[in-house]
Every structure is written in C-alpha cells, then in structure tokens.
Sequence to fold (832 residues):
Amino acid sequence: MTPDVFLTVLAPENLAIIAIATFYGCFVGAVPGLTATMAVALLVPFTFFLDPIPAISAIVATTTTAIFAGDISGTLLRIPGTPASAAYVDDAHRLSQEGHARTSLFVSLFTAAVGGVVGVLILMMIAPQLARIAISFSSFETFWLACLGLTCAIFVGGGTVPKSFASLCIGLAVASVGIDVAVGHPRYTFGVPDLLDGISFIPAMIGIFAFSEVLRTVQNLEKRKEAVTEITEKVGRALAGAFRIVVRFPGTLARSSVLGTLVGALPGAGADIAAWISYALARRFSKNPEKFGKGSYEGVAAGGSSNNAAIGGAWTPALVFGIPGDSVTAIAIGVLLLKGMTPGPRIFVDQPELTSALFGSFLVANIIMVPVGILAILASTYILKVPRAVMAPVILLFSLVGAFAIAGTVTAVWIVLALGLVGYLMEQNGIPLAPAILGIVLGKIIEDNFMISMIKAQGDFMGFFDRQYSLVLGILTLGLWGLLILRTIREMLRAGRKRKGVSR
Amino acid sequence: MTTTHLTRLLGATALGFGAVLATQAAAECDWKPERAVTYIVPWGAGGGTDANSRMLASLLSQEFGVPFNVVNRTGGNGVTGHSAIARAEPDGYTVGAVTVEINTMHWVGLTDLTHEDITPIALVDVVPAGFTVKADSEFGSVTEVLEYAKANPGELTASGTSQGGIWHLALAGLLNAEGMDPEAIRWIPSQGAGPAMQELMAGGVDVVTVAQSEAKTLIEQGELKGLGYMHTERMAALPDIPTTAEELPSGWTLAANITLSGPGGMDPEIACSYEKAALKVMDTQEWADFKASRGADVVLMGSEDLAALMVKNDQALGDTIKAIGMAK
Fold:
C-alpha cells in the first residue's frame, strides 16, 4: 500500500465515514429481516455525494458489519441475518439460552474481525489469480459446488443422517416453487403472482427459525415459571471468556477464514456455501463434535469467521472482471462506474490507488467493527431481561414486519406463518432446521445450473465430468455421497441390532 | 396626450394578458409530489436498469424535494415489477422503470400486460445488443460465425438472458433475418447478463448477445472480443466494432430500452410534470457524466415520441417472436 493511499484511508473524514457506516451496518444487520444487500442499496444515493474512496469505504464497512450484526438477532432471537449465519444459529441461540449470550456474541465479533482481516490479506496477495479460477466456473462447476454444499448440510445437521436428509428434502421441496429458468413454466404457484419468483429465503428463514421458536416459547410458558431466566454474564468476564475461546481454536479459525475467502470468491452462493463447509469441516476435525448444533463455541467461531472472510472473497470477480459474485458487489460495481472507475483485469495496474484503498478500507472497517460491535452487543443483550411472555409477541411482530419489508407483499407474511408451523413440527419430531434453509437457498441454484448444463450438453450426463474443475468437484461430491450412504447403512444396522437386543 | 394614455392602457392590458397567459402556462405541468414516491424497478439491483433508475430517482428527488424510494420488484422475468407499476394507483406516487419487455412479454404469453396499460413519461436509455465472443475465439466477424453455424447447425451455443428474453430475440431475430434457422445457434438460458458473461469466459458458451455496453469493459481489457454492434451507428467508445447494419445483408438491429413510466391512466397533468422534470434533470452535466461513465449517450425523448416508439417496437418485436415460433 502506497503512503498516499494509506493517508487517504486513514484521513479523519474517511475514518468518520467508516465509523458511521459501521454503526449503520450494525443497526440494519441487527434488525431481523433487513439484510446487508438492503443496507448497501439504501446507501447508494449517499455515495453520489462522496469521493470515490470514501464511497467504497462506506459500502465495505456497511457490508462487513451488517453480516456480523446478523449474528446478534440470530443469537438472541434465533433469526439468522443471512443464510450463511443459519449454519450456526442453533449453537449461538443455545448458548444464549444457557446464559452465555454475550460470550457467544463476542466470539462471533472477534472471529468475524479475524475472518475479515484474513480475507483481505488473501485478496491483497492473490486476487488476480483467484479471480482467474472463479471466472473459469461454468454451470457444471457451480452445480457440483452447490451439491457439495448440500452434502455438508447433512453432515452438519444435529440429528441423524436420515433426519438431516429429510430436513434437506423439505427445503428442496420449498425451493421448487416458482418459474423454472429453463422452460419458464410456473410450478406450485396456485395462481399467486407473488410465488412466480419462488419463496425467497428471508421470509422462509424467519418463519422456520423465529416463528417456530415463538410457538415453542408459548407452549413452554406455563411449564416454566421463571419468566426471566437468561440474565447474561458480566461484560468483563464475557470479553475475557470470548478471547480465551478465540485463542483456543487457531486451527479452526485459520481454516475457516481461508476457506471462506476462496469459496466466497466463486460465483453463485459462494458465501453461504463457504460458511456451511467451514462449519462441517470444523465439526469433522473437532475434539467435541457431539457439541455441534447444541451450543458449540467452535461452531460459532468457524461459521462466524468464514462468512466475513467470504465478503472479501466476493469482491474478487467483481473487481477483477466486473462480474459481480452477489447482489452487494453488483451494487458496488454500479457505484464504482459512477465514480469513473471501471473494474476489470487492468484495475490493479491502472488504478492501484483504488484497489489499495479498497483493501485498506476493509482492514480499517474490520478493526472499527470491534468496538462498535461491542457497544451493539451490550445494548442488544438487554432484550434478554425482557420476560419471554413479552418477548414472544414482539418477535412475532418483528418477523412479520421484516418479511413484509423485504418482499413488499402480504404473501411473505403467509410464508412466514406456514413455514413457521412446518419448522415447529420438524423440531417436535427431532428433524434439524438448518439443512432445510440450505435446501431453500441452494435448491434453485442446483436446479438452474443442472438444467443449463443439460441443455448445453444436449442431455449427455458425461458433460458433468468433461471439464477439469468439474471432474474434480464431481468425484469429490460422489465420493462424499458414497461415504454418507455407508454411514447411513451402518447407523441403521446398529439401530436394528440395538432394537433386537432390547426385545430380547 | 390621449395617444399616450391609449398606449399606456394598451400596454397595461397586454401586460395583464401576458401575466394571465404566464400563470396559465405555469399552471400546467407544475404538479409536485408532497410525500415520498415509490420508484419500482422490475429488475435486480446492480443491473443497467437499476443503475439508470437509481441515478434518475436521486436527481428527481433533488428536483422535487421529496424522497424517491427505489424498490426492486424482481421475478417472473419482469412480469412482477411491470404488473406492480401498471396496477399501482395513478396518483403520481408510484412510477417505475418500464423496460422493452413490456413489448415482448405479452407475445410470449407471460402476461396480458401491454404498453397500453402504462403511461409512458420519458425515455431513459437505449441499449443496443452486441455480438460478443471470447478474446481467443477463432471467429473474427459475425459473418464467420453465421457461416460456421450454417455448416454446423446446433453446434454453437449462445447466452445472455432467459428463453424468449430480449437478448435471445436479438440472436434469434438476427438468424431469422439472415434466412437461417433461429436454432442454428442454440440458446442457453441464463439469469442475466452477468452470469452469461461468466459462462462465456468459462468457456461454457460460444457467444453472448447481451448489451454491448455491458460487455464494454471486458472487451476494452482484452478478455472478450466484440464482433458486432446491433445498431445503426458504431458505439463511440468502441469505434472498431462494426455494426450489424453495415455488415449484414439484412441490416438487422436490435436495442432494448429503459423508460420512466407511470401506471395506466395517469392524470395528464401529473404525467407532464414528471416529463418536464425528467427531461430537465437528464439535460444536466451530472446525468451526462453518468451516461458517459457507462459508455452510453444521453437520450432525450418525451412522452409522445416514447408512446410512438413503444407502438413501433411492439410491432417489430411481435413479428420477430412470431417468426421464430415463440409466440403464444
């Protein structure tokens, strides 16, 4: 980074803008139903009046914080901010119920900052090379990658393999609603125009997690007399505890951050898949895999670092080729163009000050995020003092308003209610919820890319193994499926043997 | 003395008349929104329609002094957003970015909505299609591609948007105009221009026919190669790329457009106030700079001409859709 750029990024006005954007991102991200994309879209008119570097800094700072802040509502209310946070929302929420809300949130915050910084450092070193790989992903590779993501959902789920698989299938069934991209035929829309575009994941996520939680709370109110159970821990202890936890898992953090950046750079649902794969791998290599899904700090650390690292990754193809990896970077490209900067392969040569400023802002934003995040956590954990009987209707209100805000239709409210019931019934039967969310997010991606690939290959299945990367990803995915089937058979045999033993 | 009186009197009367006329002229087209206006964009955040609309919305917001909230109502290949614009209350508090799809969707049977269900206000952008291949492609011109496709029908693939979307019509219409089978180059549906260019760069398809302005950056930086511009004049920013009008015997051209439109049955007073404001803010340096940054020219076209353009486009695109057998 040249000294000039360093000065521009660290200039008082720029720091002030980053700080304001951080607060703003934190607020939007923490409100259930509002997303990072929405936060950035609302920011665009303001960037017109800013110089290029502050404009980029503002966008970067907003996204980085909004993604972390999604963990606040996830932990306290069980409404994950993004599908990426859905991977570990059960862990975070369980910790909160056990009275460790602040520790868990501080772990989220610290690991998000670490993930963010690692992501930027990787980008600074190998963005052009990484973009080369990302850009060589066609529909075949994207299909396999999404399959890999789904496979991880089965490994991740708290329940047994068949139950996780059932949850995934429910998610995939929900994803099949809407117009299909290949032939343009509407499915399961029952003549409702709002369903033409399918069921978007925000109302689905709010319904499955938050509304089902409200239902359960209401059911348990009578049984549990202690209305205020979750008084959270002291700030100092929580901070120290969180710090110790973060230091305890350097391997998990490093792996998740690197993986988050790399997978985040790939087109499609990079960031979401990244968090799930990181979480699944953390569980695989953990000394306490049984704690995952039931309040594991390690799971929170893995997912939290990975999804923030993925934000940096998502900028790679956008910056190097002008092809956005997600909707946030799509908006960002629009702003860059407006400022007379054209993303493209030569941007690192022609406009080094821009790329350095971008990386610089990322670093600064991730650092400023820590104190701002601490304030937000302290402020928000006061909700835990509110009795559950009061909290439940408030969550319900937020869920419905949030769903309406994102989609702008009453249909979204019905989706929340219907899927909330589904989620409640699933939990009653021991079916984990998280894989269903991934099914909804990835279902469409898998189908679109499968259909497009089949049209391209004119129905020849071998097309899926014709290309270099798709061959590797395909074999990896099929191998994992083989392992899964073996594991299921073993589980079923063991269960059968046990039953026999009992009957004797 | 009398004459002077008379002249004075006449002068005063003339002044009075003038004043009356002036107030009348000002009374027309000076409606102003008093609260926030919703600006519906039927396409996703980050695309060309979104960028143009957001810029225009912010300029209109300064002009009128009320917020213009841009809402992306995506889905249903544009049906959702266009329906939302057409069916909104025509009270001036909902406007939107009606795009060229208003002239294609009803032909392919997606919706009953036509340009008669909206109130055109002003043209915002004209977006001619391109004919773009990978930089290391063996093809050097559109004619070469067409000849290869003629000899090997169905071997080449192209992408850019969904089946029956505007860039698909650009390709199929071009093939049809050249007397070829519209399927000679197979269409691979995609979610939009970005994913289509990703496919092209990854070697998944051979050609994209997205807007040349969208492919401009990658062409300039040597990643892609522009073979043809489906317009009557070459693009100022990329003067080396021949137009299809000059190269092909059929003289085929195709452009998408983005407009500012209101719901059907909008009060003429409100519509012309918007027209006035839109044409005013699009005639500023700020708008010109914005357009230049996207490699596009400023277009200024008011309500009346736009309505005529929509009728013309509807006919031409309908003919293309029927010719390639996609009409329903």
In short: Chain A has a mean pLDDT of 83. Chain A has one domain: 3-493. The first strand of chain A starts at residue 178 and ends at 179. Chain A touches chain B through 51 residues (CB under 8 Å).
